[in-house]
Structure prediction request, 255 residues.
Amino acid sequence: MSSTLSRRRTTPTAMSFSLLRTLAATTFVIACARSDAAPRAKDPAAAPATPTTTATTTPATAPAAAPHDSISDRADRGRILGDSTAPVWVIMASDFQCPFCKQWHDSAFQKIVNTYVKTGRVRLAFLNMPLNIHQHAVAAAEAAMCASVQNKFWPMHEALFAAQTEWETVPDPNQKFATMAAGVGVNMDAWRNCVTKHLALPMIQADRERAVAANVGSTPTFFVGDQTLSGADAKVVEAIDAALAKAHSGKKPAS
Prediction:
Protein backbone atom coordinates (compact mmCIF):
# COMPACT_ATOMS: atom_id res chain seq x y z
CA MET A 1 0.00 0.00 0.00
CA SER A 2 1.09 3.59 -0.45
CA SER A 3 3.65 4.90 2.01
CA THR A 4 0.95 7.18 3.41
CA LEU A 5 -1.18 4.27 4.51
CA SER A 6 -0.77 1.95 7.44
CA ARG A 7 -0.69 -1.79 6.81
CA ARG A 8 -1.57 -2.72 10.40
CA ARG A 9 -4.32 -5.28 10.75
CA THR A 10 -5.27 -5.31 14.39
CA THR A 11 -8.87 -4.16 14.24
CA PRO A 12 -10.93 -2.28 11.66
CA THR A 13 -10.83 0.83 13.85
CA ALA A 14 -7.06 0.66 14.19
CA MET A 15 -6.81 0.35 10.43
CA SER A 16 -8.72 3.42 9.42
CA PHE A 17 -7.85 5.65 12.35
CA SER A 18 -4.19 5.17 11.41
CA LEU A 19 -4.68 6.01 7.73
CA LEU A 20 -3.07 8.86 5.91
CA ARG A 21 -0.71 10.39 8.47
CA THR A 22 1.34 12.57 6.11
CA LEU A 23 1.19 16.27 7.01
CA ALA A 24 -0.18 18.73 4.47
CA ALA A 25 2.03 21.80 4.16
CA THR A 26 0.83 23.51 1.01
CA THR A 27 -2.36 24.78 -0.57
CA PHE A 28 -4.17 21.98 -2.39
CA VAL A 29 -6.35 21.99 -5.48
CA ILE A 30 -9.16 19.47 -5.06
CA ALA A 31 -11.21 18.28 -7.99
CA CYS A 32 -13.91 15.90 -9.02
CA ALA A 33 -11.90 14.09 -11.66
CA ARG A 34 -13.00 12.48 -14.89
CA SER A 35 -10.00 10.27 -15.53
CA ASP A 36 -6.43 9.32 -14.72
CA ALA A 37 -5.68 6.02 -16.45
CA ALA A 38 -2.16 5.60 -15.08
CA PRO A 39 -1.25 5.22 -11.40
CA ARG A 40 -0.12 8.51 -9.90
CA ALA A 41 3.50 9.10 -9.10
CA LYS A 42 4.48 8.94 -5.46
CA ASP A 43 5.95 12.46 -5.66
CA PRO A 44 3.89 14.57 -3.21
CA ALA A 45 3.97 17.42 -5.75
CA ALA A 46 2.49 15.27 -8.51
CA ALA A 47 -0.43 16.97 -10.23
CA PRO A 48 -3.95 15.62 -9.66
CA ALA A 49 -6.05 14.07 -12.38
CA THR A 50 -7.46 16.41 -14.99
CA PRO A 51 -10.38 18.15 -13.28
CA THR A 52 -13.66 19.38 -14.64
CA THR A 53 -14.28 21.58 -11.60
CA THR A 54 -11.86 22.73 -8.91
CA ALA A 55 -11.91 24.27 -5.49
CA THR A 56 -8.97 25.46 -3.42
CA THR A 57 -8.56 24.65 0.23
CA THR A 58 -5.76 25.26 2.70
CA PRO A 59 -5.55 22.41 5.21
CA ALA A 60 -4.30 22.81 8.75
CA THR A 61 -0.63 22.22 9.44
CA ALA A 62 -1.50 18.77 10.78
CA PRO A 63 -4.69 16.70 10.52
CA ALA A 64 -7.05 16.81 13.46
CA ALA A 65 -6.98 13.78 15.70
CA ALA A 66 -9.54 11.17 14.70
CA PRO A 67 -12.22 10.77 17.36
CA HIS A 68 -12.39 7.64 19.49
CA ASP A 69 -15.87 7.17 20.91
CA SER A 70 -18.64 4.63 20.53
CA ILE A 71 -20.32 6.52 17.66
CA SER A 72 -17.08 6.91 15.73
CA ASP A 73 -15.94 3.37 16.42
CA ARG A 74 -19.22 1.90 15.18
CA ALA A 75 -19.30 4.20 12.16
CA ASP A 76 -15.72 3.23 11.36
CA ARG A 77 -16.40 -0.50 11.49
CA GLY A 78 -19.48 -0.12 9.32
CA ARG A 79 -17.64 1.41 6.37
CA ILE A 80 -15.26 -1.54 6.01
CA LEU A 81 -16.29 -4.43 3.79
CA GLY A 82 -14.66 -7.83 3.47
CA ASP A 83 -12.81 -10.59 5.28
CA SER A 84 -10.31 -9.48 7.94
CA THR A 85 -7.82 -12.01 6.52
CA ALA A 86 -7.90 -10.57 3.00
CA PRO A 87 -4.33 -9.99 1.76
CA VAL A 88 -5.07 -6.69 -0.02
CA TRP A 89 -6.72 -3.48 1.14
CA VAL A 90 -8.53 -1.15 -1.26
CA ILE A 91 -9.25 2.28 0.22
CA MET A 92 -11.34 4.67 -1.84
CA ALA A 93 -11.52 8.38 -1.15
CA SER A 94 -14.88 9.49 -2.48
CA ASP A 95 -17.57 12.18 -2.46
CA PHE A 96 -21.22 11.12 -2.72
CA GLN A 97 -22.06 14.17 -4.85
CA CYS A 98 -19.11 13.81 -7.24
CA PRO A 99 -20.48 12.70 -10.64
CA PHE A 100 -17.26 10.87 -11.46
CA CYS A 101 -17.40 8.97 -8.18
CA LYS A 102 -20.86 7.85 -9.24
CA GLN A 103 -19.58 6.99 -12.71
CA TRP A 104 -16.86 4.77 -11.26
CA HIS A 105 -19.28 3.27 -8.75
CA ASP A 106 -21.85 2.41 -11.42
CA SER A 107 -19.31 0.86 -13.76
CA ALA A 108 -16.88 -0.93 -11.43
CA PHE A 109 -17.87 -1.13 -7.77
CA GLN A 110 -20.13 -4.18 -7.81
CA LYS A 111 -17.73 -6.17 -9.99
CA ILE A 112 -14.95 -5.58 -7.47
CA VAL A 113 -17.20 -6.56 -4.57
CA ASN A 114 -18.36 -9.74 -6.31
CA THR A 115 -14.99 -10.78 -7.70
CA TYR A 116 -12.61 -9.80 -4.91
CA VAL A 117 -14.38 -8.82 -1.69
CA LYS A 118 -16.91 -11.66 -1.50
CA THR A 119 -14.20 -14.18 -2.34
CA GLY A 120 -12.09 -13.04 0.62
CA ARG A 121 -9.22 -11.58 -1.39
CA VAL A 122 -9.81 -7.86 -0.81
CA ARG A 123 -10.92 -5.73 2.10
CA LEU A 124 -12.55 -2.48 1.05
CA ALA A 125 -12.82 0.77 3.02
CA PHE A 126 -14.52 4.08 2.24
CA LEU A 127 -12.77 7.36 3.08
CA ASN A 128 -14.94 10.48 3.10
CA MET A 129 -13.67 13.27 0.85
CA PRO A 130 -16.59 15.73 0.57
CA LEU A 131 -15.57 18.60 -1.68
CA ASN A 132 -16.38 22.24 -0.97
CA ILE A 133 -17.69 22.61 -4.53
CA HIS A 134 -20.54 20.18 -3.80
CA GLN A 135 -23.20 21.82 -1.65
CA HIS A 136 -24.68 18.63 -0.19
CA ALA A 137 -21.54 16.48 -0.03
CA VAL A 138 -21.04 16.83 3.72
CA ALA A 139 -24.73 16.23 4.47
CA ALA A 140 -24.64 13.09 2.30
CA ALA A 141 -21.53 11.87 4.11
CA GLU A 142 -23.25 12.46 7.46
CA ALA A 143 -26.30 10.52 6.28
CA ALA A 144 -24.05 7.62 5.27
CA MET A 145 -21.89 7.60 8.38
CA CYS A 146 -24.89 7.86 10.70
CA ALA A 147 -26.25 4.79 8.89
CA SER A 148 -22.82 3.20 9.35
CA VAL A 149 -23.24 3.51 13.12
CA GLN A 150 -26.03 0.95 12.69
CA ASN A 151 -23.99 -1.19 10.25
CA LYS A 152 -25.98 0.14 7.29
CA PHE A 153 -23.24 2.11 5.57
CA TRP A 154 -23.07 0.05 2.40
CA PRO A 155 -26.84 -0.03 1.69
CA MET A 156 -26.89 3.76 2.27
CA HIS A 157 -23.81 4.14 0.05
CA GLU A 158 -25.70 2.36 -2.72
CA ALA A 159 -28.85 4.44 -2.20
CA LEU A 160 -26.99 7.75 -2.25
CA PHE A 161 -25.19 7.03 -5.51
CA ALA A 162 -28.31 5.56 -7.13
CA ALA A 163 -30.31 8.72 -6.38
CA GLN A 164 -27.51 11.28 -6.74
CA THR A 165 -29.24 13.18 -9.56
CA GLU A 166 -32.41 13.43 -7.45
CA TRP A 167 -30.89 15.03 -4.36
CA GLU A 168 -27.87 16.96 -5.62
CA THR A 169 -29.83 20.01 -6.86
CA VAL A 170 -32.61 20.32 -4.27
CA PRO A 171 -32.27 23.14 -1.71
CA ASP A 172 -32.54 20.75 1.24
CA PRO A 173 -31.87 17.03 0.66
CA ASN A 174 -32.46 15.92 4.24
CA GLN A 175 -35.93 14.52 3.66
CA LYS A 176 -34.64 12.49 0.72
CA PHE A 177 -31.78 11.23 2.87
CA ALA A 178 -34.26 10.28 5.59
CA THR A 179 -36.36 8.35 3.08
CA MET A 180 -33.25 6.47 1.95
CA ALA A 181 -32.25 5.74 5.54
CA ALA A 182 -35.69 4.36 6.31
CA GLY A 183 -35.47 2.28 3.14
CA VAL A 184 -32.23 0.59 4.22
CA GLY A 185 -33.69 -0.27 7.61
CA VAL A 186 -32.01 1.99 10.14
CA ASN A 187 -33.56 2.90 13.46
CA MET A 188 -34.84 6.31 12.45
CA ASP A 189 -34.83 7.90 15.90
CA ALA A 190 -31.17 7.03 16.40
CA TRP A 191 -30.25 8.01 12.84
CA ARG A 192 -32.00 11.40 13.11
CA ASN A 193 -30.30 12.05 16.44
CA CYS A 194 -26.93 11.30 14.87
CA VAL A 195 -27.60 13.54 11.85
CA THR A 196 -29.19 16.41 13.79
CA LYS A 197 -26.40 16.54 16.36
CA HIS A 198 -23.71 16.01 13.67
CA LEU A 199 -22.25 13.13 15.66
CA ALA A 200 -20.41 11.68 12.65
CA LEU A 201 -19.05 15.01 11.44
CA PRO A 202 -15.74 14.86 13.37
CA MET A 203 -14.90 11.57 11.66
CA ILE A 204 -15.81 12.98 8.24
CA GLN A 205 -13.64 16.03 8.84
CA ALA A 206 -10.77 13.84 10.02
CA ASP A 207 -11.14 11.66 6.92
CA ARG A 208 -10.98 14.68 4.65
CA GLU A 209 -7.97 16.21 6.39
CA ARG A 210 -6.08 12.93 6.20
CA ALA A 211 -6.93 12.53 2.53
CA VAL A 212 -5.65 16.03 1.80
CA ALA A 213 -2.55 15.35 3.88
CA ALA A 214 -1.93 12.22 1.80
CA ASN A 215 -1.99 14.32 -1.38
CA VAL A 216 -5.39 13.18 -2.54
CA GLY A 217 -6.14 15.85 -5.14
CA SER A 218 -9.24 14.47 -6.80
CA THR A 219 -12.19 12.17 -6.28
CA PRO A 220 -12.40 9.29 -6.66
CA THR A 221 -8.91 8.25 -5.54
CA PHE A 222 -7.91 4.69 -4.69
CA PHE A 223 -5.09 3.22 -2.62
CA VAL A 224 -4.44 -0.34 -3.78
CA GLY A 225 -1.34 -2.20 -2.66
CA ASP A 226 1.54 0.17 -3.41
CA GLN A 227 -0.37 2.12 -6.05
CA THR A 228 -2.41 5.32 -5.89
CA LEU A 229 -4.91 5.82 -8.71
CA SER A 230 -7.40 8.58 -9.46
CA GLY A 231 -10.36 9.15 -11.73
CA ALA A 232 -13.54 7.54 -12.95
CA ASP A 233 -11.60 5.25 -15.28
CA ALA A 234 -8.88 4.34 -12.78
CA LYS A 235 -7.56 0.83 -13.44
CA VAL A 236 -8.49 -0.47 -10.00
CA VAL A 237 -9.00 -4.08 -11.09
CA GLU A 238 -5.54 -4.19 -12.66
CA ALA A 239 -4.03 -2.70 -9.50
CA ILE A 240 -5.82 -5.29 -7.35
CA ASP A 241 -4.56 -8.13 -9.54
CA ALA A 242 -1.00 -6.77 -9.27
CA ALA A 243 -1.28 -6.44 -5.49
CA LEU A 244 -2.68 -9.97 -5.17
CA ALA A 245 0.08 -11.38 -7.36
CA LYS A 246 2.66 -9.64 -5.20
CA ALA A 247 1.01 -10.95 -2.03
CA HIS A 248 0.86 -14.48 -3.38
CA SER A 249 4.49 -14.38 -4.47
CA GLY A 250 5.49 -13.61 -0.92
CA LYS A 251 6.51 -10.05 -1.63
CA LYS A 252 5.08 -7.54 0.78
CA PRO A 253 3.55 -4.40 -0.76
CA ALA A 254 5.26 -1.18 0.23
CA SER A 255 4.19 0.07 3.63
